[in-house]
Amino acid sequence: MEIKSLTARLSVSPQVTADDIQAIKDAGFRAIVCNRPDGEGADQPTFAELSKAAKAAGLEAVYQPIVAGKVSDEDAAAFDMALAKLPGPVLAYCRTGTRSATLWSLSQAGNRSVADILAATKAAGYDMGGVVRRIVNGGKTPTDTGDARYEVVIVGAGAGGIAAAASLKARKPGLEIAIIDPADIHYYQPGWTMVGGGIFDPEQTARTMGSLIPQGVHWIKAAVAAFEPQNDAIILDGCRVVKYGRLIVCPGLKLDWNKVEGLVQTLGQNGVTSNYRYDLAPYTWQLVKGLKKGRAIFTQPPMPIKCAGAPQKALYLSADAWHRRGVLKNMDIQFNNAGGVLFGVKDYVPALMDYINKYDATLNFFHNLVAVDGPSKKAWFDVAVPDAPVERVEIEFNMMHVCPPQTAPDFIRVSPLADAAGWVDVDQATLRHKTYGNIWSLGDVMNAPNAKTAAAARIQAPIVAENIVADMRGGSPVAQYNGYGSCPLTVERGKIVLAEFGYGGTLLPSFPKFLIDGTKPTRAAWFLKERMLPPVYWKGMLKGREWMAKPEKIAAE
User: Fold this and answer.
1) Which residues form the Beta-lactamase hydrolase-like protein phosphatase-like domain (predicted)?
2) Distances in whole angstroms, Cα of residue 103 to Cα of each of 83, 225, 470
3) CA 305/CA 341 separation, integer angstroms
4) Domains in the chain, start-ordered, CATH in brackets?
5) Which positions are annotated as active-site residues?
6) Neighbouring residues of 534: CB distance < 8 A, sequence distance ≥ 6
7) 500-528 exposure pattern, b = at least 16 Cβ within 10 A, e = fewer
8) pLDDT by residue (tens digit) across 457-510?
């Protein structure tokens, strides 16, 4: 007997026998629900036998038989009512546990998010893909089978999504494309480091979504609830169904602020800030300007995160501002990194260490932020040095810049598109899904081992567009991704270490060394970041003008 927990109150299992009842009792259950009709299997005990054994053990027992594959809306409602009346915790069972898990999923549709339901059942080993539309529809059977169909559907209107749409339109102007995204505002997120450093105004990093969707591309302003790749369908909140010929998945990733205890309650006050949010980046600069002495902590969570250099960029620009004001000697700067290295590509570390030393910053590796008390200005870190017990340490602060833990979005993690870690599972060269041949992915959400940066998406979008067009013509992929990503590390106001690299840490510089040597801080790289990259983003990348982003062709064998 294998019992799987869905909630603290309900677990499900395959068929139980009278001999299992005592073990069920000993496990703490107070009631059982049978969802398997008598006589379904030759070796199956009857409910009467099990009910008698349950009552002898002091357990309540309910019989709600469900024919396999025929869970009705009324069945789910009856299951919910039975659970409400029974003492918990409850064990529900059928032949495999699937019917019981399905009943629970449908009964919870109005009370829990679709992602939470799918996550609980997936963790228990049950695939609810067959009833996902009903879950999205509040547990009720929907009456329609498809509201719209497009040749290409793109999930996500961030940098990757809009760039991919524009690149496709540039290649096939008549292509019927739809972008699905509920947001009203599109952000140039690489600019938030500069906002936090007092260089950009926040308004420079935001534009209305409607002004950026490429002409002729349909914008479906809605959130995705689930995927049905076996039906070439996407289920939106409200149970609208969008069908596709080919799908591009690029909704970005999820900033998991709630994973750090107490963080959400104190963000934007008590000296706790983050350049990872549009509304908080100005507070970073406000704190830096106001601080004359004390301890400033800059945190970095476990990988993967978007723009892995951003946590230390905030440190460098803050320290440079204190240096220019002559108060750096009064500051205790600490970089608390959950990882074990300053930067993942060793060629750039010497230049960065020069600035760590210049600013007299303390590097605390293997320090992962787990809790914060804003009013008392205290933070707690789990220190996980290899081959040593995890130790929790308390550190007081005057200012703390937090980089939040990051995961794939909930609706991606519980979908059939995800790998075991929750990211969209793609071939790292072609960016095509490993299982579903008409699905591609790019940007932060996919699992290729590259740096998650806007610069990476700028290169990936034309590759995906090129390969989709080739697929439409009946051919094999023609373009490949080499893992390129770029991280302009703002080591001081006016100078940048321009890290450009691909898979395996291979250096992939865009400029000759005499123009920009990426392993050293240069003013030319700062000019690129401050003056050139914003227009390249707004007027190039998002418009399908693939400046310095020509797809690399797959070499013929």
Assistant:
1) 3-110
2) 11, 19, 44
3) 15
4) 4-136 (3.90.190.10), 149-253+408-553 (3.50.50.60), 257-404 (3.50.50.60)
5) 307, 487
6) 188, 191, 204
7) bbbbeeeebbebeeeebbbbbbbeebbeb
8) 999 999 999 999 999 999 999 999 999 999 999 999 999 999 999 999 999 999
